[in-house]
Design a protein that fits this description.
The protein is mainly α. About 85% of the residues lie in helices and about 0% in strands. α2 runs parallel beside α7. It is globular, with a radius of gyration of 23 Å.
């Protein structure tokens, strides 16, 4: 048992550190792209990535989730489950690639966009098989190799991009830098599986196991398809309804709020196992843990949203004057950040309590509303319409999740009082930033506002001294361990 706990702690540490480094590197080369390419070419580049990201799920169809779970149950059968997954994915990869090629030509995209999509299709296939190989490593309770490789992947993109841009390469060559990183990641994951875990890598055409693998993957595939469509379909709709420049402008708020999500992702990596355990053994502690998770999510997300709203113009200016039109879309997208953060513990609780179908249904509803709103708002309002959709649909996802949770917990709304107290503290912090941001250096303003926020949390009762002692105590125990 102690070995398993140690592995979980190590994996969480690796995963958290990797997420932070990934987001920092990714945001760095995105800033460079934005400044060099301009909104139109930037829009073409991220349109192709969004399009292939949507279709990538039709190669994996949830098989990686099944692979991790089944390998973790019985590591002796790893080669059987891996062989079955490869046998299913190989024809799916060919069919999906063909479907993307047909679609991009049918939609009438210009030649440059089509060429970018063709290169991105290769990345899509390589990344899908990389996901499969690392899924086996996860089944062996190991995230170390995947975490290291994900950071190296981003570093390759950054270094190759700088080399290309220095020599005057255009957006096509930037896609080649992504292809190089995908090829590295694929090779590394394959070598780890083959040399480190000693797993043979070959398709296994055993019909009973193929059938079992496919049907086990279906529940995972449903949610993944809806979630992937929800995240990326707005970019595709923007490209057709508002043009490449609109896509480029939209990428600024999209990248910023996406970069912030490493915080709840890392938090949930350690929260989910605890919720699963409490669902089986201690329902009262389940409720307490969920309320705390919602409270901590609010404490982190509200100052990011409100503070970001105030300094949105300064944030956008980092990417060059061509992106000033992104300031108000960024403000609206930042309003969605608290809902995004809150949706992580809600979704995690539903999964931990065997309500994963509820998550799938909720995501289907949210995706449907997102598509309808984007089709209605983008033609008239462009990027602003897409940003309003982000706020409404993320709020809807939280509401739908809480509605399902009422059947699990007795008092699922206990966190609302704390949420109100935290909101008051965050609004006071935002007022301080607004008052001093024009007269003081931004770093000084942020330090002052952070101190004000902490004091306001204490004064409003959102946190107390025992909470602070508990947090610091947990760090002390971690260090001791």
């Amino acid at each position: 048992m102690s070995i398993r706990v140690t592995n979980i702690a190590k994996n969480t540490s690796y995963f958290t550190l990797a997420l932070i480094l990934q987001k920092v590197i990714s945001l760095t080369y995105f800033t460079i792209y934005a400044r060099v390419l301009g909104p139109a070419d930037l829009g073409k580049y991220y349109l192709t990535i969004s399009l292939t990201s949507i279709f990538a799920i039709f190669i994996d169809v949830g098989l990686s989730n099944v692979l991790t779970r089944e390998v973790a149950k019985d590591q002796r059968r790893t080669s059987e489950w891996l062989g079955s997954a490869l046998a299913i994915k190989l024809p799916l990869a060919a069919l999906t690639s063909l479907a993307v090629i047909i679609l991009v030509n049918w939609l009438g995209y210009p030649e440059l966009t089509r060429h970018l999509v063709y290169l991105s299709i290769i990345c899509m296939v390589l990344d899908s098989f990389t996901l499969t190989f690392f899924a086996c490593s996860r089944g062996f309770h190991n995230l170390k190799f995947e975490s290291i490789s994900s950071v190296i992947f981003q570093a390759i993109v950054l270094v190759a991009s700088l080399f290309i841009l220095q020599r005057g390469g255009g957006v096509r060559w930037l896609m080649v830098s992504l292809l190089l990183a995908s090829a590295y990641n694929f090779s590394y994951s394959l070598i780890i599986l083959w040399r480190y875990w000693r797993i043979p890598i070959r398709p296994r055409w055993h019909w009973p196991l193929l059938k079992q693998s496919f049907w086990l993957a279906v529940p995972f595939a449903g949610y993944a398809i809806f979630q992937r469509g929800y995240v990326y379909l707005d970019v595709v709709l923007l490209s057709k309804l508002a043009g490449d420049v609109a896509v480029g402008i939209y990428q600024v708020p999209f990248k910023i709020i996406n970069a912030l999500q490493f915080l709840p992702m890392a938090f949930i990596a350690s929260l989910y196992p605890a919720l699963s355990l409490y669902w089986q053994e201690n329902r009262q502690q389940l409720s307490v843990t969920f309320v705390r998770a919602m409270h901590y999510s609010a404490i982190i997300s509200l100052p990011l949203a409100i503070g970001g709203w105030v300094v949105a113009d300064q944030l956008v200016a980092i990417f060059s004057s061509d992106y000033q039109a992104a300031a108000w879309p960024l403000r609206w997208c930042l309003l969605a950040v608290p809902f995004m953060f809150l949706s992580y513990p809600i979704g995690s609780l539903l999964n931990a309590c065997d309500r994963q179908r509820a998550n799938t249904y909720n995501m289907l509803i949210v995706l449907s509303v997102s598509v309808a709103m984007n089709l209605l708002l983008i033609p008239r309002w462009g990027v602003l319409g897409a940003s309003w959709t982000v706020v409404v649909t993320n709020a809807l996802l939280v509401i739908l999740g809480l509605w399902k949770i009422r059947l699990i917990l007795q008092n699922p709304a206990n966190w609302l009082k704390k949420f109100g107290q935290t909101m008051l503290a965050a609004l006071l912090m935002g007022l301080i930033i607004w008052q001093f941001s024009s007269s003081l250096p931004i770093v000084v303003t942020l330090i002052i506002s952070g101190l004000v926020y902490g004091l306001a949390l204490l004064l409003t009762g959102s946190i107390n001294l025992s909470d602070m002692r508990s947090v610091f105590g947990s760090f002390s125990r971690s260090s001791a361990d």
